[in-house]
Structures are given as structure tokens and as C-alpha cells.
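Work Package 3 (structural annotation) set out to generate three-dimensional models for the target panel prioritized at the project kickoff. During this period the team completed the workflow that converts sequence records into C-alpha cells, so that structures can be stored uniformly alongside our sequence database. As a representative example, we reproduce one entry of 167 residues exactly as it appears in the project archive.
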Amino acid sequence: MRKYLIGIVLLLVVGGFAFVSLGGIKWLDSMGFRGQERVLRSRVEGYWEARLKGNAQEVAQFQHPDQREVFDPGMLVTESYEIVDLRVDGDTAVANVDLVTYIKHPLLSAHTQDAQVRDEWVQVDGTWYRAVQPVSLGQMIRAMQEKSRTASQEMQEQPEGEEQATP
């Protein structure tokens, strides 16, 4: 029995080496086991390359079809990027990207600023898109109403005769 187990272990070890040396990893990639991450990385790189060029039409191709908007970099210029982490979870993914940016304005000197952004991506019909989730006007109004309501409640709870402390 022991010889049988040693034989199986030896066969698995030798088979594993043969699998790797004969291109088994490439075969796994071709079967899609690691292909989604590679496809997504290509899309993320494409998006940031378009941002580097400041090409609005090209940037729009990477935005979610329901959230396409005209890219207007304004004064913010992306000088360089590096994808530092990429995580795929089914049809959603997150890319953490290190950026070097600066503000382009005739009255300002071009001091670069390092930042890291968290890009959310979704897969729709087999294509990865950057998911932009802008705050809607309705969300802004609700947030302002809540802030106003909280301030009113605090003022009502304050006993008469006490003055409100000023910061």
C-alpha cells in the first residue's frame, strides 16, 4: 500500500513538472482560467492611455454604455499611471491605479501630485467597462435636506437662554 501511495505522489510531482514545462500554463490561459484578468488589464491600460492623451472619444469607449459622458479633463492632466492591483470577482472588478497628475493653468506652476484611484469595472456582454457612478441631483438634494433637518433638530434641542457655541 505504501509503495502504491509513493508511486501516486511521484506521478503527480513528475506530471506537474511536465505540465508546466510543456506549456500547461499557456493552455490554462487559452481556456480562460486566467484570461479574464488579462483582458481586463488590457482594458484598464487602454482607458488610462486614452486619459494620458486626453482623447475624449477614446475615453468614452471604456465607460459603461449607460454612463457614457464626454470626458473633459479640464485642468487636471494625467502624466503617468501604474496598475498596482487588479481583482476580478465574476462580472465585477476593481483596479487600483497609482497616478501622477498636475493642474494645467497659465497662472499655476505644474507641480505633480501622486494619488491612487480605485477604478470599478463591470463586464457587460463579454466586454469590460469602467463603471462611473456619479452622484445624482436627487442624492445631493436628499443629503442637503438631511443636513438641514439635523441642524434644525439640534437647534430645537438646545434649551432657551443658552447661546450656541461658535467654533
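The radius of gyration is 26 Å.
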